[in-house]
Amino acid sequence: MSRGPREGFRPAFRQWRGGRPFWGGLLLALGGAEVLLTLKASLDVILHVGMQGLAGYLLPAVMLLCGVLILFNPAQRLFYSVIGVLVSLGTWLTSNLGGFFVGLLLGVVGSCLTFGWLPDQEPRVSHRQRRSQARSAKAAPAAPSGQP
Question: Which segments of 1-148 are extended strands (E)?
């Protein structure tokens, strides 16, 4: 039995992903997970202990939570992205220099991508497509003007 052109998991996932700031939320969540994992590193690996109390675990958990909320509640993406970038910058002080800069950078880039995402935006036309459209418009013969 053959499937139609829009059936299956991949097209459904692509459509779901297109309606939300997927990459921004994913990067923010990965940054939070990375910072949480570096908190469990051995003392030989840890560069900056910082406040290993509640804030050391709370800020990366909030990063992870904001990333997941961006994926599943894109209507509130602006609030989550502002909180995400502030919390990501806060991990510099509390969590091994922001997870050895990797989690910090993932969080900031993901938050910025989310903040800049615009829903219902027309897809961009590539330079190649614009050039081919211009060539086809030039190559089309001019219509007669109606004068003899």
Answer: none
For the stretch 62-72, pLDDT in tens is 999 999 999 99
Q: How far apart are CA 30 and CA 10, in angstroms?
A: 22
What's the rounded Cα separation, in Å, for the pair 119 and 22?
A: 12
Sequence-ordered list of residues with C-beta below 8 angstroms from that of 134, at least 6 positions apart, any chain: none
Please check whether residue 96 is in contact with residue 43, taking contact to mean a CB–CB distance below 8 angstroms.
no
Query: Full-prediction pTM beyond 0.70?
Result: yes
| 119 burial via Cβ count (<10 Å: 0-12, 13-18, 19+) | exposed
Q: What is the DSSP letter of 119?
A: T
Phi and psi torsions of 76, nearest 5°: -105, 25
Q: Token pair of 5, please?
A: 């052109």
Q: Which residue has the tokens 């059936």?
A: 7
Using one digit for the tens of pLDDT, what is the confidence trace for 14-52?
Answer: 888 888 999 999 999 999 999 988 877 665 555 555 555
Tokens describing residue 75: 């209507």
Tokens 């050895």: give the residue.
100
